[in-house]
Amino acid sequence: MSTDVTNLLRGQPVMAILRNMDPKRSVELASKAWDLGIDLVEVPIQSPDAVPSLAAVIEAGAEREKPVGSGTVVTEEQVRQSAKMGAAFTVAPGLDPGVVNLCRDLGLPHLPGVATPSEIQSAARLGCTVLKAFPASILGPEWFKAMRGPFPGVSFVATGGIDASNAIDFLQAGAATIAIGSALDDSRQLDLLAEIIATRGTPGQV
């Protein structure tokens, strides 16, 4: 079974990341994202106290038939925990073959993080052709342009330091999807995000 998230991300130019929020606030912002047209929501579980927030958003997502992912998954135990909770996919800051292979065994789509050509090659060999480029704000839009040449079969989710002010730059540079966090809590950015979703949310982009 494929380990990448191609089907989930197809036609989804924006993904929301809800980090370091309590369960109530996480559900509030997830609902805001879904109302805006952002179907994909990730809740990182970098520490045990973040797990209740993931559980709450998964439950809310199930009511609206929205896929909710588990983020900052860096151990195989976190993979098992995410699968048991009903996460639709997992996201990692880096590339760990053990995590990738376990996700494959469990039928859980996985989005690993990369920042170098060597990591991209390694991820592709493991069956991951949609990758999280992290930290995107440090890599810069030119990185995405440069990677399109040697890796035409790979798609990237730009993550880290992305908001409405620079989202278009990364999408135009070749990112298939941009991941945003604090922008959801900023009313000044919501109109631009809505415009991005309306104009870029078309099938076949990943």
TrEMBL record:
Pathway the protein takes part in: Carbohydrate acid metabolism
Keyword terms: Carbohydrate metabolism, Lyase
One Pfam family hit: Aldolase
Residues in the signal sequence: none
Top-level class of the enzyme under EC nomenclature: lyase
Protein EC: 4.1.2.14, 4.1.3.42
Gene Ontology MF terms in the entry: (4S)-4-hydroxy-2-oxoglutarate aldolase activity; 2-dehydro-3-deoxy-phosphogluconate aldolase activity
Subunit organization: Homotrimer.
Family: Belongs to the KHG/KDPG aldolase family.
Protein name as annotated: 2-dehydro-3-deoxyphosphogluconate aldolase/(4S)-4-hydroxy-2-oxoglutarate aldolase
